[in-house]
C-alpha cells in the first residue's frame, strides 16, 4: 500500500481526486484504487510537550528550576484521531508519500509524525503549490526522495524548539519576578509577541510625549491670461526655517513671502503633462486582506481570519487563506470564467462588474515563479454553500472577489500636470490631475487604492491642490498673483496602532530596527510572525491584559508598559528573530547544525535567567484583564492557553 500523508484535508482531497477509482472516503482518510490511501494531518497534530512532562520538579513554577533545557524532547498528540489513523496505516504501508506544504513547517509536521510513529520505510516527497488537477498530476510525476529535504525539516525543528525554550523559560522567569512583588497575573514572554508589544508601547510613548508644532503654508491664486485660474503653493528655500519634513516654522517668513508676491506678476518656469498608468492591485495575501478589512470594515485581524477560515472550510468559497503570497499559478487563469460566475452568485452587487470583466486580460498576478507554498487568496468556482454566510463572511468575500475581478479590468489611466512658477523671486508649484480611464477603479472596493498626485510627503501637505488638470502653459509665459494667504497648520502625532496597521507593522518590521544586517534578514523573511499566527499573537496580548482597545486603536495598558520596561532590550525588539533566522538559514544550507544552534540558545537563556534572578522582583501594575497566575501546585495556564490556541490553529508553533 502507498500512503499519502497530506498536511490538511483540502490537499488530501486534491490528491485523491487524481488517483485511481474506486474510492471510499472516511472521516480520517480516503481509500483509492491501485492500493493508494490518502490520510491527512490538520497542521501540527504533534506539539512539544509541556515542561511538567520532563519531571515533577517542573510541575511548580520555581526560579531554582530554571532554565528548563530538555535533551530528550517529547511530543504531545494534540489530534488523537488523526494521529492514530496515520499510525495504523503506516503499519501496512510499503512506502509513504510526504505531502506537507512546500515550506519549513510543512516539511516538519509530516516528518515528525513519521518519526514519532517509528516508521522506517521509504518516503518520497510530493511538492504541491496549486491544487488544480493538472498541477497535482504534474507534481505526482516528479516525486523526489524525502531525505533531500531533511535540512528544511531541521531548520523548522530548530525554530520550534528554540521558541519553546525561550517562551517557557522567560514566561516562568518574569511571572515569578512579578509574583515576588505582588503581581498575580501571568507575564508571558515570547520571541514574537513581546517585540510586537514593544512596538505598541513605543508608539504610545511617542504619542504621549508628542508636542504639536505650528507650521505655515503660503498659498496663492494665479491668473494665467483670460479666465484661467489655479492655485499654487510656495516652496520655501533651504535657507528658511524648516523642519526635517521641509515644513516652514517661522510665521513671519510666511507673512513676508505672502506680501512679496501678492498682486505681482510672475512667469512659468516649466509645465509638465504626464500620462500615468497604474496596474490593478495584486490579489490578497492574508496580511493585506487583514489590513484592508480593518480599514474598510473595522474588523479585527482575528475576525478577518475567522471569516476566511469559515469561507474556506465550511463554505468552500475561497482558496487557502493563511497565505503570504499575492500571486497565482498561471494555470488558474483558465478557470476564470467559472470563478466569475461564482462571484456573481455569492456577491450579487458585483454581478454586473463580473459580467463586464475582460477574460482576455492577464494581469501580472499570474506568475508561477512568484508562487510560494500557497498562492493568493481568491474565490473558488463553487456556486453553492453561500446561503448560510453571515455578514462578516459576506463582507470579506466581497473584498476578495473585488480584488480578483480587478485582474480582468484594464489599468487606471490618469493625466497628471505640474506647473513650476517664479513669482517675485519665489518658487511656487501647482499640480492637477484628471482621470482618463477609470479601469479597475470602477470596482468600488478598490477606488481608495488609486494614486495621489503628490511627489513627496511635504508636497502632499501643501494646500490647496487643484482637482482638475491645469491647462497647457508655455515656459516663460506670464502669470499674475490675484490672491495670497498664509495657512496656519500644526504637526500631528503618529496614529496609534489598529489591527490593520499592527499587522502591516509586523510584516514590515525591518523598518523598526537600525542594524542593516537585521533589516535585510527581516525584509527577506517578510517580518515577524506568519500569516497563520499574527492574529493569534495580537489576541494573546489582549488576553494577557497587555493591551486594550480604545475605539479602533490598540493601546498598551500599565501591565504591558511595566513588563516592557522590566525586560532586557533583546526581549523587546525584533532583532532576536533576525539572529535566529540567519541561523536557521545556515542550518538549511548545511553551514550550521541543529544541536549547535540549540546549544547557543541555552547559553543565552542561562544568561537571561541569571540577569532576571539578579533583579529579584519587578513592579508590574495589574490590568483588569490580566490572567491569574498559577499557584505553586497548578500547571501553567500559559500552556493550556497555548494548546487551546493550537486546536484552533494547528500550525501555530510551540511558543507561549
Rg result: 29 Å
Structural class: alpha+beta
* Strand content bin: 15-25%
Number of helices: 21
Number of strands: 17
Strands of the largest sheet, in order across it?
A: 2-3-4-1-7-8-9
In terms of per-residue confidence, which ranges show pLDDT below 50 for 5 or more consecutive residues? Answer: 452-460, 628-650, 652-656
Terminal CA distance: 40 Å
Polypeptide structure, described:
This protein is α+β, with helices and mostly antiparallel strands. The chain has helices at 9-16, 80-90, 104-116, 133-140, 150-180, 193-209, 251-261, 286-297, 301-314, 336-346, 351-356, 391-406, 457-460, 499-507, 516-524, 534-543, 558-566, 569-572, 575-589, 594-615, 637-648; strands at residues 2-6, 24-25, 29-31, 36-40, 46-48, 75-77, 95-99, 123-125, 144-145, 214-223, 229-234, 265-278, 412-423, 426-437, 478-490, 547-550, 553-556. The strands form four sheets. The protein has a seven-stranded mixed β-sheet with strand order 2-3-4-1-7-8-9. The chain has a six-stranded antiparallel β-barrel with strand order 10-11-14-13-12-15. A two-stranded antiparallel sheet has the order 5-6. Residues 452-460, 628-650 and 652-656 have low confidence and may be disordered.
How is this fold's topology laid out?
Blueprint: E1 2-6, H1 9-16, E2 24-25, E3 29-31, E4 36-40, E5 46-48, E6 75-77, H2 80-90, E7 95-99, H3 104-116, E8 123-125, H4 133-140, E9 144-145, H5 150-180, H6 193-209, E10 214-223, E11 229-234, H7 251-261, E12 265-278, H8 286-297, H9 301-314, H10 336-346, H11 351-356, H12 391-406, E13 412-423, E14 426-437, H13 457-460, E15 478-490, H14 499-507, H15 516-524, H16 534-543, E16 547-550, E17 553-556, H17 558-566, H18 569-572, H19 575-589, H20 594-615, H21 637-648
Helix pairs in contact: 3-5, 5-19, 5-20, 8-12, 8-14, 9-12, 15-19
